[in-house]
Amino acid sequence: MLTKPQDIVVALKLCLGAASQSYADLxxxxxxxxxxxxxxxxxxxxxxxxxxxxxxxxxxxxxxxxVHGVPFAFPAHAQExxxxxxxxxxxxxxxxxxxxxxxxxxxxxxxxxxxxxxxVRPLYASVPGAARRDPALYDLLAxxxxxxxxxxxxxxxxxxxxxxRLKAHVSA
Length: 172
Known about the structure:
Elements: H1 5-18, H2 23-30, H3 34-46, H4 59-68, H5 70-73, E1 81-86, H6 92-95, E2 106-109, E3 115-119, H7 127-133, H8 135-149, H9 152-171
Parallel strand pairs: 2-3
Antiparallel strand pairs: 1-2, 1-3
Helix pairs in contact: 1-3, 1-8, 2-3, 4-9, 7-8, 8-9
């Protein structure tokens, strides 16, 4: 069974300590149905990214997949200019690490967004709402987008940040 883009969103949420939550609670926080979350966890288990007994994410394997698989499995490209929520290097998690003034900022299309930028299709339609509800998840999702659309410099920074954040939440 192949992974789907929403599986990455679920895996990142599980990394943030949501493994003990019910599928219904996870779904509500991510803007998905309980059955979508359950199916995502099943696919993550099949992909050996989640332990079947504990629902704990295998962080090193996930990190490897985020860096080396996600940009190819779920590519994204900046599109037309629209209003939205900043992602990748335009998001707060990376904004202070890069001077990207010459680039149009990437955004997830969102009518509640406050920034004009190049539209980037999120991993899942509910990502902007889930990111607004969970700042730590927002940071991880924006970093994943830097891996999906960034150049070498942005990808290197995102890779280090993701690795550090996933390790930090193990002991949290």
